Structure formats: structure tokens, C-alpha cells
Amino acid sequence: MSSSLLRYAVILGLLSAIGPFAIDMYLPALPSIGQDLGASTGAVQMSLMAFFLSVGFGQLIYGPLADMVGRKPPLYFGLALFALASIGCAMAPNVEMLVAFRFVQGLGACAGMVVPRAIVRDLHTGNEAAKLMSMLMLVFSVSPILAPLAGSAVTAFASWRAIFWIVMVAAILGILLLALALRETRPAEDRVESGIGSALAGYWLLLRDRHFLGLVFIGAFGISSFFAYLANSSFVLIDHYGLTPTQYSLAFSINAVSFFGFSQLNGKLGSMFGLARVMRVAVSGFAAAVVVLFLLVLSGIDGLPVIIGMLFVANGFLGLVIPASAVLALDEHGEIAGTASALMGTLQMATGAVVMAVVGLFLDGTALPMIAGIAGCGVIAFTLAQVTLGRRRRPVAAPAE
């Protein structure tokens, strides 16, 4: 492992993790937020959905901007906006203001999600890119593994509002890290032909590329299965199964360990068998695991060990799918990597928001609606993989300059 690869993985992973840290850290506090603000479960979940929506659609701006002005300026702006919105969240007097500031916070957070993927494409392609992306995700894993534990510890000794002061400090540290440790990977000469017209042409090119869209939506439904768990697991595991916030955090971390642990095999398996084959097998394993889990829960075998154990297996397969789908989708679009990364992120976050909304319509206090949503995502991802990876790639004409 080269020192340069490791350095970029650490820096990009930490910058990418700041936004998700603001999600994962406050998950154990969702029930207490509702009690403190006198808000319903649905209203509190809106603060989560508002964040996802703004992260998704904000990327459409940051991606082309990163192609036009370079990778670092959008990151500076996004982190600063995130820090200011975090102060608003910490001081929100009611759930409506919390939802509004979470929306603004998401607009800042999405810079750290879209730009690092473009930087990976600036530096590497193919298996090397998959290796860097997987290492980045390993660093990124500090959020879902440690953030819920940190959140439950904070709420045990202080108010849930302290969580947002902490993520504000994290954003400021991110700005310092960006200034001192990351070089610009898109030089000025590469930005000459980048503008609003080229961004629109790039989006039009990508929206006509069925192979790109297929890979994006394989990843989208894989990620959406995690979003369905993210939005509902604290209520199911704490309210239905009676876990304490700390126990919930540990259960949440188990699945994150599986996801990020298996993701580290992408580079090695990709070099041995090819990324496309690895992803196709992994999608099949993921779909099989979540469908079996759904059938078990439907038949009444819904003990907590069953759910955690099967999700551990499923998320291991998913850890092979997400990095590979991103690398394969961006591989042929290096000249517009920021735009392609933005469209990918927007479509995936929008898909996740829709899945969360649909699952939310069927909430009944049990695990079944959540598991059904996860299984549905697995089946759709499997079907898309057979269609996308089972046919020959047809090139899409590049847009006219």
C-alpha cells in the first residue's frame, strides 16, 4: 500500500464522513428529540428526510461547480455552510425549525459526498480506483461505527443539542484539514472548457447512457436498503425490541463493520475476477440474504438475533457492491467526473428518500415494514444487475463542444 494512496484515503474519507456523522450520531437521539420538542415520530423523521433530500439535489450544483472551479473551493463553501446550519440545529426551538436547518445542513454536507468521488477519479481508474474507494470507505466507516455510540454517550450526559455543536466543530476541523493536507487535483487547464453549457451537456450525455444509469441505480437501491434501516432502526430496535440507546448503537455498528470490512476486498477480488463479475455475484448474495430475512420475519421468526445476523451477511455483500458500482459508473466519464459523481449522488439520495417515505407509510411498530423495504431494494438491485451487467456495453456519443 503506497503512502500516497493511504494519505488520500484518510483525507477523503474524513471529509466524506462529516455529513454522515451528522446523521449517525443523532440516530439514538431521535426518540428523545421527539419528546423534547413535543413532535410525532413522523415529524422527527422529516428532519432526517429533509437532510437526505437536500444532500441529493444539492449535488447537482456542486458536481459541475467542482469541474468548473476545481475540487477545493466547493468543499470550503460546503463545510462552512454545514457548520453554520449546525448552529441553527443546535438552537432550534421547535421541530419545524430543526427540519429547516437540517435541510440547509444537508446542502453543505453534500459537497463532502460528491467531490471526493471526483477526486478519486482524478487520481485513478479501474482496480486502483476501487482500492482507493474501498480504503476511503474504511476511513469513512468511523461514522456508522462510532457515531451512534458517541451520540448515545452525549445524550446520556447532555442534551441532544450538544450533538450539533460537536458536528459543527468537526466541520471546522474539516476546513483545516482541507487547507493543510489536500492538493487541488483538477488543474486550471482542465477547467477551460467547463461551464454551465458543458454541465448541461454532460447531464444530457449521462441521462442517455443506460449503462451508467444501470450502475447508478444498482448502487442506489443498495444504499436505499441501508437508508430504510437508518430511518427506522432506532424506533424498531429501541421501542419494539426494548434496546437502550447504547445497545442500539452497538447493534447498528455490527452491520457497519460487516459492510466496511468486506468492502476492503474489492481491489483484490476485482484484480482477480474483474469488478463487474464481483459486483454481479455480490448483488446476488445480497438479494438472497434480504429475501430470506423477509421470509423469516413474515413467518414470525423475527427475533433480534435473526435480524442482526442476516443483516450482517447482507451488508457484507453490499460492501462489495457500492464501491464497485461507483467506480464502474465513473470509469468512462473522467472528463466530467464531478458532474457524473453529482448525478450519481442525486439519483441515489432521491431513491433513498422515496424508499424511506414508502416504508414510512406502512410503519406499524414491528420490524416487518422495514425488512420488507430492505428486501424490495435487494430484489430491484439484483434485477438491474442482470440487465446492466448481462449485456454488452454500447458507447454513448460524447456531447458536441
TrEMBL record:
CDD domains for the chain: MFS_MdfA_MDR_like (cd17320)
Q: Which UniProt keywords apply?
A: Cell inner membrane, Cell membrane, Membrane, Transmembrane, Transmembrane helix, Transport
Q: Where are the transmembrane segments?
A: 5-23, 43-62, 74-93, 99-120, 132-150, 162-182, 212-230, 250-269, 281-301, 307-330, 342-363, 369-389
PROSITE patterns in UniProt: MFS (PS50850)
Against InterPro entries, the record matches this protein to: Efflux_drug-R_Bcr/CmlA, MFS, MFS_dom, MFS_trans_sf
The record's subcellular locations are: Cell inner membrane; Cell membrane
- What positions does the domain Major facilitator superfamily (MFS) profile occupy? 5-393
User: In the UniProt record, which is one GO cellular component term?
Assistant: plasma membrane
| Keyword set includes Transmembrane helix | yes
Q: How does it sit in the membrane?
A: Multi-pass membrane protein
Q: Which family does it belong to?
A: Belongs to the major facilitator superfamily. Bcr/CmlA family.
Q: What is this protein called?
A: Bcr/CflA family efflux transporter
Organism for this UniProt entry = Kaistia nematophila
